[in-house]
Design brief:
Structural class: alpha/beta
Order of helices and strands: HEHHEHEHEHEEHEHEHEHEEHEHEHEHHH
Largest sheet: 7 strands, parallel
Shape: elongated
CATH architecture of the largest domain: 3-Layer(aba) Sandwich
Helix content: 25-40%
Strand order of the largest sheet: 3-2-1-4-5-6-7
CATH superfamily of the largest domain: Glycogen Phosphorylase B
Radius of gyration: 25 Å
Number of helices: 16
CATH topology of the largest domain: Rossmann fold
Distance between the termini: 42 Å
Amino acid sequence: MGSLMSLFARMGFGTHPCVAREATVLIGDSATLAQAHDLLAGLQARFGRVASAGFDAPPTASSTQAMPYVPLPAHPVALRRALARLAPVRLILLGDIPHSETIATATRAPLFWVNVPRHVTKMPRAQALLSADPADVTHMADTELTGDPLLGITQLPKPAGIDGLCERFRAHRKNGRWIGYFAATGAGEEAIAYGAFFTLIRRKMGLLALAPRDGERYEPVYRDALKYHLPTNRHNRLSTSFVPIKSRVYYIEDPQTLTALYRCADFVVAGGSLSEMAGHTPDILTPLSLACPVIVGPVHHDPVVRAALAAGAIIGVDNDHALVEAAYQLISDETRSRRLSEQGRQWAQAQSGALERVLSRIQ
C-alpha cells in the first residue's frame, strides 16, 4: 500500500489539500520556506488564502507549519497535473526552483519570481523578476532590484559619529600605515586578532584596532593582551589628541566608539564570525552601510552573513592564513578595496525595506 501511495503522489494525485486550492502559492525548497514566515504573513494579510509548496520535505519552522503545504511531484506530466488541480490564483517562485519552465506553463495564474537566481536570464510569462542582489540586475534583462525579503532588514543602522575620531590617527596615515579593525569580538577571537596582526605587520606596518563586544570583557581582555608586549592606547584613557606613531594597538571599551570607528578603518573583521565560542551574531550591516570592507571568519550561522557572502558583498575566510591574505589584499590594493566597499554598501542598501518592496510588486 505504501508503494502504491508513493506512485499516486508521483503522478500528482492526493498532493493538494482542499484548503490550498485557489490560493496564493509560494514555491520553494524547505530550507528557504522555513525562513519565509514574514513573507508568508505579508502575503496572507494582502491576499487571504496562502499555501506553500515544494519538491522536498515540508518546512519545519512552526510559523510555516500553520499554513498548508503541498508536496510537488518532479515528473513534468505529474507536476502539470498537480498544479492544474491546485488552480492557484497566483504563483510565487522563491529562490532557485527546479522545473521552473514546467511550472510557468502549467497554469495561467500570474507568476512572480522572488530572489530570482543569477542563472535565470528570462522568464517570458513572469509578471515580475525580483532580484536580491544589485550585481544581478546589471546582466539580467527585465529584472527589478528589491532586495531579499527573507532577511528581515527593515532599515540599516545609523551609528553616530565622534568628532575628530579619525583625525586621531593622523600620524599613522601620514606614514602610510593601515588600520585593521577587529570589531565586537567575543571569546576566543582576540587571540586570532593578535595573531593576524603580528603576521600582517611583518609585511606592512599598521595599527590594530580592537573592540570587545561585551563590557564585562573589557578589562580581562586588556589584561590578558599585556602578554603580547605591544604599545597599546586605550581610547577612554588617551590623554593626547593623537595616537602616537609608536602605538600598535588602539583599544576600545564603549559601544559608541565601537561603531564610530568603522569610519576610520581600512577593513573590518566582524566579531562573532571567527570562533563558535563568541556566541553572538556578527554585525556586518553597520560597517557595510558606511562603505567599509568586511571580512568574516568561518562561523556563518546568520542568514544575513550567508546572503552577503553569496552576493560577494563581504569576504569570507576559513582559517587564520586566509584571514591574513584577505586583509593584506585590501590594504595593498586600493582599487580592490574601493570596489568591495561600494559593492557591500550597495548590497546593504538594497536589503533595507526589501519585504515591503517585494509585497508591493506582487499583484
